[in-house]
Amino acid sequence: MQQATRTRAAIVVSLWIILACTHARAADINLSGTVVASACTVDAETKDQTVTFEQARAVDYPNVSDTSEWQDFALTLSSCPASTTQVTVTFTGDADNDDPTKFANTQGDATGMALQIMSRDHITEISPQGALAVNVDSISRSATFPLSARLYTPTGYVTAGEFKAVVQFSFTYQ
């Protein structure tokens, strides 16, 4: 009798395990993500850079599109990983009210002047929210954006005062 009870108990437990297993279901878990290129190092001279223009006289800008001399500067990145082959810089700042392709004087009291930024070869103009891409040098693992800036009058009506435009930049790595 005791043997029969044990056998029945084993059968009941086995059936319970089988029934429990039949209620188990397989589930798929979908995981996704993005693999991005590693960042380069922004050189110290590039961070918080100030481009200074020679003193300008308001009377020297009587016509629309009059400009100051170009002032060259560069944004330089180094220690780029081997997987990074191109870097894009995006410029942000306030657009000038009279010429939205130029950067506004946001912290000075001079009027009628804007900031024009171009590639150093003066072929590509950089406007607010504009971008520029360069290839990473495969040997030095660096990327340089040679640029030029100048004061520009979109109106020809310039008043004396201080000129300060703030242009921020961010990098995207490919």
UniProtKB/TrEMBL annotation:
<dbReference type="GO" id="GO:0009289">
    <property type="term" value="C:pilus"/>
</dbReference>
<feature type="signal peptide">
    <location>
        <begin position="1"/>
        <end position="26"/>
    </location>
</feature>
<dbReference type="InterPro" id="IPR050263">
    <property type="entry name" value="Bact_Fimbrial_Adh_Pro"/>
</dbReference>
<protein>
    <submittedName>
        <fullName>Type 1 fimbrial protein</fullName>
    </submittedName>
</protein>
<dbReference type="Pfam" id="PF00419">
    <property type="entry name" value="Fimbrial"/>
</dbReference>
<keyword id="KW-0732">Signal</keyword>
<dbReference type="InterPro" id="IPR000259">
    <property type="entry name" value="Adhesion_dom_fimbrial"/>
</dbReference>
<dbReference type="InterPro" id="IPR008966">
    <property type="entry name" value="Adhesion_dom_sf"/>
</dbReference>
<dbReference type="GO" id="GO:0043709">
    <property type="term" value="P:cell adhesion involved in single-species biofilm formation"/>
</dbReference>
<dbReference type="InterPro" id="IPR036937">
    <property type="entry name" value="Adhesion_dom_fimbrial_sf"/>
</dbReference>
<feature type="domain" description="Fimbrial-type adhesion">
    <location>
        <begin position="29"/>
        <end position="174"/>
    </location>
</feature>
